[in-house]
Amino acid sequence: MHQTKRLAHCSTSGFLFLVGIGSFAGAVACTPADRGVNPSDTCTANCGGGGPTAQGRDGGAEGAAEDGAPPGKPGDSGQNKGETDLGCGGLTSPPCAEGKKCLVDTDCVVACGYANTCVSARSCKPHLGGDTCGQGEVGQAGALHESCCRTLPVTGYADPRNPGKTVYLDKYEITAGRVRAFIKDITDKSQGKPDIRAWIGKNTPSIWDNAWNKFLPSSNESDTVHVDRNLLGDVRPNEPPLPDTDQDQKVGVNYQFNGQLFVYLHGNNCSTHEDAFGFPTFFYPASVLAMTGPGIFPPRANGTTPGGVMVPAAEHLDVKAMNCITNALLAAFCHWDSAQLATDDVLNFVTGSPATLGNAPGCGTQVGNEYYPRSDAATKGGRCADLTLINASFDAGGQLPEPGDPLNASNYIFPIFPDGTTHDKAWEIAAPGRGTIKAGGAQTDVVRLKDLDEPWVDLAGNLNESVLTMSGASFTGKFGLKFRGIGFQSARSELNFNANWPGEGGLRRIERPEAKAGFAGGRCMRFR
Known about the structure:
Layout: H1 3-6, H2 32-35, E1 111-112, E2 118-119, E3 133-135, E4 144-146, E5 151-153, E6 167-170, H3 176-188, H4 196-202, E7 224-227, E8 247-250, H5 253-256, H6 286-292, E9 303-304, E10 310-311, H7 313-318, H8 327-336, E11 340-341, H9 344-351, H10 376-379, E12 446-447, E13 456-457, E14 464-471, E15 474-482, H11 494-497, E16 520-521, E17 524-527
Parallel strand pairs: 14-16
Antiparallel strand pairs: 1-2, 3-4, 5-6, 6-17, 7-8, 9-10, 11-17, 12-13, 14-15
């Protein structure tokens, strides 16, 4: 897709849904220290102050408090010497709650963020992808951003595995910046190695299968997993063929979030070679991309704002919803963040979706068995936003089911890529909380239990959401894929959903722990 086509959706007074929010003051640039893992050479300035260097509390615990209880108070009403905020922080006072001043993680109930204030979850310590969720783009005047770790109580829902606890569901999809913070934290605590496999071995989630460990990285480079050839291609005509032999695939961090696959999914779009039009949202610098395929993978595309201000790839990607991450690593991330990957049951409850919807591409009362969705019953009604108003497309590759059909027109575009960019299409994945073109800039993809409730965002669209599939209090051993988003029908192709082909082992490809795709992301749930 060329820039001239994308500009048809722009306005001279603003960009896409950002019209009325304000113009851009300029791109925000980060230091390598702020970005953490694999920093870009284009970083030029600090993002809002020096970040903390000390490590805080370790170990994942789905029941741990994230927002923090009010800090204890010393005997007087003033801020004592050594405290970082009134009555909290420092070596002798209780740790501080979210929003209080801090210098290091141990000053806080949870962690100390980049701006020297306590955060509610440690994945939101960085700026980009940490507190950039909501309406408007980073650097745009009038943008309404908040913590990407904001979580909301699911009133009336009880999780059968956690009796007596209040269930919370994160307001936003997980961002690439939060996953980067996860990798950086594990690296800092593992002698410079991103040994997520060992960390999970010592901090095993309550819902986990040790067979998943082999798909987790223990280093940047050296890890491999042996994959049955039948899982690495498509037996159907005119599709990527199976390799001749089984393959040893690399699972190190430098291969986790790009075109290196552990099971091939139709419509995965995680590769960024020329003419791939891939859209993974985790940034790798050019040096890492060159290792995965010398001369094959160009650097990720920088973009511009409507006013022509350059936005480096590392910065526009970190704020976007995280995709091309395996189901197992999503579950590991949420556990590290003192949470749990959301279940199908809680997402069904929040959206008002029947259990019979399963993994079909509907949402709430909008049925998911119409190919392709045209009727009001399939596209409108219930708690979920109308299909035509959300960031969703029928096909991941951008092939129109019919010429000009609105269900495959781009509904979010940021930033603007140069003409002739054929390897990178990440502009179509939104940062959590943004609006859409067809909604006139409004944040339309919202779900509420009651009319005046604060809403969850991007449940119906943006990314299809990976979940733990439950049967009451029991985990079925399978992951699931909920609702709609980019490539919602590609995600449900016969290849991805047939469990009876050679090598499948009774699991649909989308249900496997090693499955990843550009169309899939997720969000966490919490118990208190």
